[in-house]
Amino acid sequence: MLLVPDETRQRLRAERDRFPLTRAHVLDVLRNAGLRPTRQRVALGGLLFREHHRHVTADGLHQEALGSGVTLSLATVYNALHQFTEAGLLRQISVDGERTYFDTDTGNHHHFYIEAERRILDVPPGQVRIGRLPEPPAGYEIAKVDVVIRLKRRNANAGHACSGPAAPGCRQCGACRRGEPE
Length: 182
Known about the structure:
By secondary structure, the chain is of the alpha+beta class. Helices cover 32% and strands 13% of the residues. It is built from six helices and six strands, in the order H-H-H-E-H-H-E-E-E-E-E-H. The protein is globular, with a radius of gyration of 22 Å. The N and C termini lie far apart (55 Å).
């Protein structure tokens, strides 16, 4: 694993946050992170860092690359994403061990996960407060704490006990007015 000092990570983050990125800038970011700027890395770096912070999956980035005319395999995308993560350019977020997202914002922050949409959003700064953490096992220290808050849409009819078709005075769900079962 490539160890990148904190001051280098902060410098890379500051450099990367200057948008939009040119090809020359992508080359510089990759070189400064200790990565050889291959054709595939430059193409993926251009896609990843052209917008302000994003959350991507390997599959999604692969489709985006193919759609923009970049020919590469899904395995190449996975390898590049993991290399970018090890170099400190991305942050990896795992959800249920079944889906992995990569975040272009490597700073300390937390996430919402919208289950039905399989989408990640940033939690606004200062919205999560963590109290006392457990003592780590002997010989270990806490490196970071990742919080992923799972979201689902509220049921529009939650708490509404429809009494059936044409219930007098019902204006909540519309099912009563349409004669539909709730």
